[in-house]
Structure formats: C-alpha cells, structure tokens
Here is the input.
Amino acid sequence: MHRGAIQGGRMLHVTGSIVRPSFSRISQRGVLSKTVGELKLRAFRLKHQRTGAEWLHIAREDSNNAFSIGFTTSPSDSTGVAHILEHTTLCGSVRYPVRDPFFKMLSRSMSTYMNAWTAHDYTQYPFATQNAKDYENLQGVYLDAAFRPLLREADFRQEGWRLERGDSGDSTSSWGIKGVVYNEMKGAFSDAGSLFATRAEQQFFPGTTYAHVSGGDPQFIPDLTHEQLVEFHRARYHPSNARVYSYGDLPLGPQLARVDKAIAQFERMQPATVPMEVRPFGLRKVTEFGPVESVGSPDKQTKFSVSYLTNDLRDVQETFGMSIFSGLLLNGTSAPMHQALIDSHMGSGYSANTGYAPFTRQTSLAVGLQGIADKDIELAEKRIAETFARVGEEGFERRRVDAALAGVELAYKHRAADFGLSLMRSVSTGWFHGVDPITYLRVSDAVAQLRSTIDSGKFFEGIVNRYFTQSPHQLRYVMLADPAYGQQLDTRENELIQTKVAGLGRRELEKIDAKNSELAAEQAKKEDVGALPTLTLSDVAERGQRHAVDMGVAGDSVPVQWRTTTTNGISYLRVINDVREKHPDLWPYMPLFCEALTYLGTQKRDMAQIETDIGLHTGGISFSPFVTTDLGNLGHIEAGISFGSHCLDQHIASMYELVLELVRETNFSNTGRLRALVSVMSTNMFNEVADSGHAFARRLAGSTLTPELQASESLRGISQVRFLSGLARLKDLEPVSERLRQVQEVVFNRLTMRTAVTTNQGSIDTNQQALDGMIANYPQPSNSTTAESPAVSGSKFTAEAARVFCPLPFATNYAAQAVRTVPYTHADSVRLQVLAKLLTPNYLHREIRERNGAYGGGAVYSAAQGLFSFFSYRDPQPLATIATFDKAVDWILNHTISDRELDEAKLSVFGDLDTPLSVADEGMAYFTAGISDDMRQERREQFFEVTKSDLKDVANKYLASDEAKKHTSVAVIGEEGLDMTEISRWRITNICTSSSV
Ligand SMILES: [Zn+2]
Here is the structure.
C-alpha cells in the first residue's frame, strides 16, 4: 500500500498504476493531475470509460478520509422528489435489505461524518472516517444504496408523505398528513427567514428549475406518487450522471475497483443537464404574505430585498471576484451597504437572502432588510441604488480589499479537522455544472490573479457597471406580515386533506388504514441487521490521541499553556478570564458585551478602521461567554469570558496589540451603534430558535437542574432571547452602556486570567514577548479581590423538577427531557454515556422519527455537564414524544440487551472520542475544563469495561427511581395552539416581555 507521502512540502506520486483500465484520466490542457503545493495535495480527475462517471480524487496526508457519491437531480416541480428520494435511498438496498441501513451504520462504524443532502441541482451522499476498514464498509453501503435501493412503497410513505388518522387505531378519528420529509419541510417553511429567501428565489427564476423548491413545498409534496419517485431514481441515479469524490491517505486503486463493480450493469446514457435559460424580465416587483415575527415591534414586520442577476457560475475567476466583492459590499461595519442600511436602523438586520448566491447556474446577489416598516421600503431602495452608484465610482478602500484577500489565504492555511469535506463542498456546485473541479483548488493562483486585476484598476467599479447600475434582470420582493398567515396554512392543509380523502372511496381508505397498520407493524418489528458490515471493538485503538502541552508563565504570574506543533505558519491565542465575584445582575449582559467588543469601536478609532486591521493581520478576534462545571462537583462552576484569535506568524505582535485594544478601550458609550447591535442580535437569536429549537428546549429543561445549565439558559436560551427583545424595545440605551462598562470592569482582570498558545517551535519566543507585553498592559481593577465565588453562585443552587412550555408562532415543536446525574469523574458517568448511545438507535429513533413523524430525536449524555437528556426535533407530537421518553426507560429496564447492541453503543462512543480536531482545538479540553490526556485515557479504558448490567443499574438509578424524578425536567418549545391538556401542570414561559405582539 502506497500512501502519497509528503516530503519537504511536495507530494510524491501516489502510484504509477492507480488508473485501472476502466477509468481514464481526464486531460485538459495537458494536465492529468495537479499538485497544489500550498494545500499539500495532489488532485486526480478521472472518467469511467463506459458510463462517463466522473471522479475527483485528492491524495493528501490526512487520515480523515472522505468519500461522496452524487447525482444531478434538478427538479421540475416542487414535490420534493429529489429530497424524498435522498431519504428513501437510505432505507435499504439489494445487498443490504434492512430498514434504514444508513442509521444502522451510525452505530456500526466510527465515521467522523455521515450525511446526505439535496442541493438545488444535485444530491450528495458524503461520509468521512479515519479507519480503513470502516471506509471500505461505508463505501460498500453507500454505493449499493445509490445504485440498487429497494425504494419500497412503505419507505416512500414513511419518508415522503402518507394520509393517516390522528389516532391510528381509531377508524373514526380525522385524517392528517404524516411523513419525515413532509414534516421537515413544514419546519423549514415555518422559519420566516428561510421562507422569505425561498419565495424570493422562486420569483427571481421563473421558468427555470430554480422556480421549484428542491426540498419540497409542503403544499405540493402530497402530489408525489411512489411511481414518480422510482422513475426519478431510474433517470437520475445513473453513473453517467454521477460525480464521485474521494480524499485522504488511502490508496485509490481498490476504490476504483469497488466502484467499477458497483456500476457493472450500467451502460452509458445521455447525462442530465440543468435546463437553465434566464429570460431577463427587466425590473419586476412582487409582494406576498408571510408570518409575523413575535419579536420586534408590530409596525416593523416587513421583509424586502432587491436581487440582481450576476455572472455565469462556470466563470470561476469571476465567481471568486464576485464573492470578494460581496463581502466588501455587505459584511462588517465598514461595508458600504452596512453603513447605508444597518446603521440607519431602518430595519432589524439584513434580509435572509442578502449576499452573493453562487449556488445556481446563473448566480445572483441580493440586498435587503427584515424588520422594516412598509413606508421605509422606498427609502431603503434608494439607499441601495445610491450605494451601488458610489461603489461604482469609488470602488473600495484598498486596505479593506487587502484584508479580504489575506483572509482567503489564511483560511486555506488553517488546518481544519474536516478539510476533505470542506474541499468537496467548495468544488461541488461548479463541478455539477461542468467546471473542472481542480480549478477551484488553485487558491493562490486565483488570489494572485485577482490582485493583479485589481491593481490594473477599476475592477470593482466594473462589477457594479456590469451587473448593478442597469440590471436587465432585477427583482424587488416584499413579504408583508399577516397575523392570519399560520392559520391560513392550517386551513389550506385541512382543505388539501379533505380533497385527498374525498377523492378516495371507502375501499381505498380502508386500504390506506391497512397500509398504515402494516407500516406501524414493520417499524415495530425487530430485524436482523447481520447483513450490514460492522467494525468491532477490536478495531478501536486502545490508546486515544494525546496532545502534549507545556505549562509556562507570562507577565510574571499569568499561566500559559503552550502547545508546540506543526501549524502551517499560524499562531493561535486563547484567553479565559474567570469571573470570581458575584454579579448575577450583570450576567445576562454577557452575550451583548462579547459582541459589543468587536462592534462598537474604541476610544481612539471607529470600528471600520479596527476591523480592517483585524482582517489584515488576523483570522478574526472573537469573544464569548464561558461556563464549565467542576469535573468532580456539579454544584461548582467556573464562569467568565473566553476569547481568542489566530494569525500568520509575521503578524503575531499586531494580533496581541489588537486584542488588547479591544479589551481596554472599547467605547461602550457609542449608543448609536449599540442600538444597531441589539437589534441584529435580537433578530438573529429569535431566528435561531426556529432552527435549533431542540437545543433551546434542552437548556430550558436543564436550567432548573444544574448551575451550568441555569447559566447557559440565561446566556444562550429562551431567557436570553427575551432579555434581548426587552433591550431592543428600550428608548434609552444609556443605562445599558453603563452596565456594559461594569461588565468590562469585572471581567477583564490580570489576576484571574489564563492563556493558551498553539504555535510552531520557531515562533514561541515571538509569542512569549507579545504575550508579556499584552499582560503588562492588561487591566487590573484597583478594588479587585480573588474571592472564590463564581458569577452564578453554585453553592446555593437546589435542583428541582419542572415542566415548562414556551409557545411560539411555529408550525412545529421541540421537546426535551433533562436529568441531573453525576459529574465527569464519577464511575457512573461512562455508563450513562453508553446508555444514551444504546437508547437512540435501538428505541428512540424508531419511536420518535418513524412513528411520531418527527424529523429527529434521541438521547445524549454530556459528561462535562453531568446532564442526561432526551430530545426531539421538528416534532408534530411533542407530548406523545415526552411519553416516549419515559417509555424508553421502561424499555431498557425490561429489554434483554444483546452483545451487539452493547458493542455498537460503545463503538458510537469511541467514534465521538476519536473525532479529529483542528490544530486550534488540540489541548483545549485541558485548557478549558482541566481534562488531561491521562484522564481521557483512563476514561477510554473504562468504556471497554462497561457491562449490560451496568446499563440497567444506571437506568434504574438515574432515570427510573423516585429520587430520579426529583431531578428530571421537561420542556416544550412550539406551537401556540398546541393542545396542552394537562396545562395546569406546566409553567408557561413567554418569549416576549411585553404582550403587545
Ligand atoms: Zn431531509
């Protein structure tokens, strides 16, 4: 086995004979393969001779190998056929005829990534793993799934849509529509931002494939039939339509053989092309209705954007130039559009589709606002036009341009943990549209070429003239908020159901009832998954990865954790400031404080100038609130602020100076900018609830159980959403400025700080010097003490059970149940972790996703937080799901755990433990939480030892006992109208402080 070794930064030949006769290299301009020195890789582009299947292989010394197979799947309607096919393909294949092999493989593998998605024009099935045997196993399962799926009608009904009675056992109860994709898309469409972006795009591309929703529009999904699904697969999932991607240090030869075999029965066919002809319509204005947002004032609920047709995606250099142009135009406080639209407070933030969209064959750029009053739209439009005109005359400040280009180069030098997958993402869209994917890998060439084009003058001015001053295809899209919107959706859904049912005879309805019972029976059936390949515990390394660190001191007394390794010429800095004094009243201000540090500007300079310096010299500076629980005591937490940055080694001194400038000199009196920031944060955070409601529900449930979760709820939970929306309503922000100054005093303190630096051997001294300099000038409050009492007092905390419901204007719900257990070092901690891994695939997935029709659900155990939790995601029946959580406990207590179930649960745990880290994250578990390599190794060994009876013991002790019930809370976030029959037992928490909305 020859692994493309890197020597002196140059990749050697992978092997002379990697190309089997059935695959040939694609020659373009004489280039068979390309060595990309700065990325330390060698790329090969191949074509399957008989079928025309394309393959991109990237040889690189990286054990996190990645693979993907994908097909062109542009839709011609909004039934979501491509998306439902993506799901159904993973429900069993000829060689692996088990239900849901994809989810089954999650626990038989140590994959670092497994997923599938449907983009506008293509569907992809990627995975990554560090284990060679696992790679072969997964490749086999993916290839069989793609080319020989069973696509049974029952799978289509489970994953796509089906008519089903509300109470499936009762033949008189009313009909509804169920299905995994149906619910997933209902959830996606209830997110006001993504609804806006989708509808605007549909209006922008009439008559093309992009006028349809590739994921499926809930009102059209029920038009799709099983026959249409099967036919779509036949026509599209064909090697002639396929793109295969592989990455890493495994040899290519055996992979070529495996794929060759998997497509042996296929002949060549005409590949699908993306029908794409935009007929310019000049200026078009469209107004539609959408939902009301429950934060923000009632008279500022409109969203609007202006979209412009830009370049052909296949012009790679122009696409790159456009993405830089878009960043300079829109992002950051010094961007002209930001100054024209956001600083004016006309809206609460950019509209969800704002930005350059290189995801369609003909690309586009949109600019708009959400949270704007109708009467201001015209003014905003005028400002947008004026801003384009100004950029068309003046271009951008040269220093900002240089900062943007430096950012691109730094991003590629940074060694990310999922490099293989991120490369795949960056080439995919172009590749599916016929661009040579290797073109995208020449990042330095692209930057150099762009720089010289800019040097020769008027590059950005040219872009404005080409696409924006007299656009032949421009859409002004407005979405007005209609309080009755949600109700109308319900009514429309009911009408749809009535029409469907009315069109069916009694016989047919009986047939559907029968099919539903069959589906339920099949879902409940225990099946033999022996056909699927699996890793065993003997494939797991006994020793985990170690990341050696050395401890040092800077500025006389501040602890420094040094990690010296190969960093590609980058230095990483991380600082934690522990807040030991009690300031519970200041705590909710922490998120705003952290954002304010990189938004308000300092006493000396405005943010625009600082931002440019940050871009020129670093990969960004970020601050965030920090909470962690004592490894031996759930009642003790450490709380404060964590911040960091990274930079090329030649900019070390500047990086430390910039960090210090923000820490010392941020101008919290800048209430004008503060107002804009509060408004943007409040809107973003509310939108986040629609997106990750399960995480909010978990925090809400956990908040009554441990001090860390109480703090997390206050910082990142529903309480924080409420807090921010309260601030957004304040007329006078001066008191808030004063609070932020108080936080600054309390948080930044030389006596309570610790730092970590990851760097190359050669840059230690430079970092030490810069760090000493920063600490010498770091604040040390005159009245500071080192009293041992955390910001949120843990000692007085008493855990108590609670049931909380948070109503929101969503058409979907999230449920969570949380249980306080034991700290990290307790012997039961590893057992609980294995238990969570066993419950998810063997019980919860089936019950919550397949039976209740939620998009997802499961159990997770956070060892560091000592919290065991159950959750559901986009769930039509959260109360049934909560009952399921309890049933899961009964199930495990009465279930005979098999050897395989236990081993699979442990494999999943090891898969998590061995997730590759980016350079920046190595050694961070020790720095942030005190978890050393030795502790991790000891814990690793304990996982091997966990027995079946251990799992029953901990289930009984922590989840089932009467004592356990006192430490168990539940939370539901979701539909206002949700039928809470036992409402008296629930505490209602509203997201808004005022009842005016
Ligand atoms: Zn999906």
Remarks:
- Residues 83, 87, 181, 184 surround zinc ion (CB under 6 Å).
- The first helix runs from residue 81 to 89.
- The domain at 800-988 is CATH 3.30.830.10 (Cytochrome Bc1 Complex; Chain A, domain 1).
